[in-house]
Amino acid sequence: MTETLNEGLKREIQIVVPATELDSRLSARLEQLKGQVKLNGFRPGKVPTAHLRRLYGKSAMAEIVQELLNENARKTLEERGERAAVQPNFELPESEDETGDILSGKRDLAYKMTYEVLPQFTVGEVTGIKIDRPVAEVTDEELDAEVAKLARDSSEYQPKDGEAENGDRLTISYVGKIDGEAFEGGADENGMVQIGSGRFIPGFEEQLIGAKKGDERVLNVTFPEEYGAKQLAGKAATFDVTVKEVSAPVAVTVDDEWAKKFGIESLEKLRETIREQMQNQLNVATRTKIKRQLLDQLDERHSFELPPTMVEQEFENVWRQVTQDLERSGRSFEDEETTEEAAKADYRKIAERRVRLGLVLSEIGEQNAIQVTDEELQRALVDRIRQFPGQEKEVYDFYKSNPEALASLRAPIFEEKVVDHLLTLADITDRTVSREELFKDDEDADAAA
């Protein structure tokens, strides 16, 4: 074993495995096979080794070489006291003659192992990090509004003969046009629209107020600038609408009997359940904001060299998501008022931040003996499996046979446990805010996170 490169976090090691060792391992492997293989003309365990070598020698040697690569990588890192940032890369002989001789046990296995090591750094001061914790409580008015919304959403509708009013549901056929030409995806023979729901293009629902069954109307609307379909965003359009039916909601009596429709024994219990769900949403938002503050300050307190391959892999993950989102929405970098080059530079910084914080949190977790228990990992696996009804066994088998996939479930649990530990050391000041302020958009912070 000879080190041929030691530059920053990059390492390159030249390793030679003598042909005699390869041949010795192959002989041992073939001896094992003797008692396992069944060949016509030979009694069990009596197949000559030379015959086995001709039949299985190269395939057995290929397995031995793979085992040696992994074994030597582990041994090399242990002896050097290093931790690889990513899986080491092996540069093996490429010529068929060399490969053939190695698999036949006639030539030394000489190869190059390259890898990047995890950086060594000192964790900055984490005690007393100042956190401003925005706290919001569900008000009675918000709870009443949510219960009323649930009542509206669970209402049954009955056809009526009069004019459509706010809250009524209409069955319509429509054809959307731009500059007089129908556009793709802009027609429906039996569309449903509830006036006041805000689910259609701005102005669409309002122009149906007063309509009756059988009415034909031409609605004039403008698609929002941020509309998902790029070819429609910001454009004026008309919709030729025919009203097929007007239905009014049947008034719901909000009482214990209504609550039982949701499998809950009383209205009081239903209100408690809804309040708890709403409060959980607020708590998640609070958690997100204080975690962002914590990570921002950790990022500011740490600066060290990052493994290039880790950064590149993280960037590729981020960039793939960005381009897929743009493709789905039909938008471009120009629509986002940037260029691909500038966007790549921004997202590479995000990738670097993620890698840096991942290493910092990992080091803090290790120093404080923070671990993910088998029970916690099992719960995460069960939650993941539930997302794929009908494919439970396939998903279970995939994660159990794929260490990297299982690690992807462990990582967020570990991160949250480290964050919890750091928050116990932080200087946290609670600040009461409204629901609106808690959910107020912060694009810069969202991008950084």
UniProtKB/TrEMBL annotation:
Which SUPFAM superfamilies does the UniProt record give? Answer: FKBP-like, Triger factor/SurA peptide-binding domain-like, Trigger factor ribosome-binding domain
EC no. given is 5.2.1.8
GO molecular function per UniProt: peptidyl-prolyl cis-trans isomerase activity; protein folding chaperone; ribosome binding
Q: Which Gene3D superfamilies match?
A: 3.10.50.40, Trigger factor ribosome-binding domain, Trigger factor, C-terminal domain
Please state every residue range assigned to the domain named PPIase FKBP-type.
167-249
Record's InterPro entries?
A: PPIase_dom_sf, PPIase_FKBP_dom, Trig_fac, Trigger_fac_C, Trigger_fac_C_sf, Trigger_fac_ribosome-bd_bac, Trigger_fac_ribosome-bd_sf, Trigger_fact/SurA_dom_sf
Q: Which Pfam families match?
A: FKBP_C, Trigger_C, Trigger_N
Q: What is its main location?
A: cytoplasm
Give the range the annotation lists for the signal sequence.
none
User: Which cellular component appears as one GO term in the record?
Assistant: cytoplasm
Q: Which UniProt keywords apply?
A: Cell cycle, Cell division, Chaperone, Cytoplasm, Isomerase, Rotamase
- Function according to Swiss-Prot or TrEMBL: Involved in protein export. Acts as a chaperone by maintaining the newly synthesized protein in an open conformation. Functions as a peptidyl-prolyl cis-trans isomerase.
PANTHER family per the UniProt record, alphabetical: TRIGGER FACTOR CHAPERONE AND PEPTIDYL-PROLYL CIS/TRANS ISOMERASE, TRIGGER FACTOR-LIKE PROTEIN TIG, CHLOROPLASTIC
Q: Which family does it belong to?
A: Belongs to the FKBP-type PPIase family. Tig subfamily.
Classification via NCBIfam families: tig
The protein in question is named Trigger factor
Give the organism's phylogenetic lineage: Bacteria, Pseudomonadati, Pseudomonadota, Alphaproteobacteria, Hyphomicrobiales
